[in-house]
Design a protein that fits this description.
Elements (H helix, E strand, L loop, with lengths): L2 E7 L3 E8 L4 E8 L6 H18 L7 E8 L3 E2 L4 E2 L13 H6 L6 E5 H12 L8 E6 L3 E7 L2 E2 L30 H5 L1 H12 L5 H9 L3 H25 L3 E5 L7 H14 L9 E4 L6 H12 L1
Parallel strand pairs: 1-4, 4-7, 8-11, 11-12
Antiparallel strand pairs: 1-2, 2-3, 5-6, 8-9, 9-10
The structure holds adenosine-5'-diphosphate and zinc ion.
Length: 303
């Protein structure tokens, strides 16, 4: 049996798993991301945790194909560098692949987290049959992994698919990135909680905004329908750009379910330019928990 180590680095936690070549997680551990220490120190802790996990699960290192690391962008996956992710505030130009590679004998690969999750959906999830699809995550932020002509689309530095900062409607105001009307500034979980709370006149979570929507709260209903329309706009842009067979939508916000998917399907069926594109399947992600580590592990198996 061959194994791969998947490492999913987030702003609050680092999940590490040993995954076999069928995609079964045979061992895993989660450690907090400590942003008060230097990234180099945090990576040393990650290395030690990986080594311990391998030892505790009695895996012989000759059966380990590699270590895949999924991390938030911006990054440079080709050079193995984490560049400047907003939620890893002090991680600036960190050569993570080099530092992990110094510790282990097997190959180490870095990929952005949305791309890793797209690989997981291709391997074991909603896109197993597809050679052209987009995976979109609508969570704290918004990102995408694009799978085109049978391959993950990387781009020159591995940041392809960063659709959160494509402009969909400048009238929504200025995004922290400087542009006006970015998709993420309008339709992320963070944005929905912020704007929904303003409309309701009290502090609400994203889920509570959707609860009011389901209770037919007049202003919230109109607002949420507009957010779904904007997600539809983004999906049409993706369809017009990469001509996918399917769009897989995951992340916390996608848990609202049918109202989102129905609205996006309706919008796409009207506005995708190509008549074939109007029939693009819009489906929920299958792998929710574990998508990060499984996708990161998939990097070693697919590479
Ligand atoms: P992360 O961004 O850390 O990957 P998630 O994919 O869980 O995490 O996304 C978190 C966002 O999704 C938050 O804005 C949260 O409020 C929202 N969210 C989580 N669960 C739900 C739910 N059941 N319904 C609507 N929104 C949700
Ligand atoms: Zn932006």
């Amino acid at each position: 049996m061959e194994y791969s180590i998947g490492v999913d680095i987030g702003g609050t936690k680092v999940a590490i798993a040993i995954v076999d070549h069928h995609g079964v997680v045979v061992g895993q551990t989660v450690i907090p991301t400590d942003l008060s220490i230097k990234p180099e120190k945090m990576i040393t802790i990650i290395n030690e945790t990986i080594a311990k996990l391998i030892k505790d699960n009695s895996i012989t290192s000759e059966y380990v194909k590699g270590i895949g690391i999924g991390a938030p962008g911006p990054l440079n996956s080709k050079d193995g560098i984490i560049s400047c992710p907003p939620n890893l505030s002090n991680w600036i130009d960190i050569p993570i692949v080099e530092q992990v590679q110094e510790y282990f004998s097997f190959p180490v690969i870095l990929e952005n987290d949305a791309n890793a999750a797209a690989l997981a959906e291709k391997w074991l999830g909603a896109a197993q049959e597809n050679n052209n699809f987009a995976y979109v995550t609508i969570s704290t932020g918004i990102g995408a992994g694009l799978f085109v002509d049978g391959k993950l689309l990387g781009g020159s530095r591995g940041n392809a698919g960063d659709i959160g900062h494509t402009v969909v409607d400048p009238s929504y105001g200025q995004c922290p990135c400087g542009q006006f009307g970015c998709l993420e500034f309008i339709a992320s979980g963070t944005a929905i909680a912020r704007r929904g709370s303003e409309i309701a006149g009290k502090q609400l979570s994203t889920k509570q905004v959707f609860d009011l929507y389901n209770q037919d709260h007049k202003e919230i209903k109109a607002y949420v329908e507009d957010v779904f329309r904007i997600i539809g706009v983004a999906c049409v842009s993706l369809i017009n750009t990469i001509d996918p067979e399917k769009i897989v939508i995951g992340g916390g916000v996608s848990k609202v379910g049918a109202p989102l998917f129905d609205a996006v399907r309706t919008y796409v069926s009207q506005y995708a330019l190509n008549p074939g594109g109007r029939k693009t399947e819009i489906v929920p992600a299958v792998l929710d928990q574990n998508a990060g580590v499984i996708g990161a592990a998939a990097l070693s198996f697919s590479g």
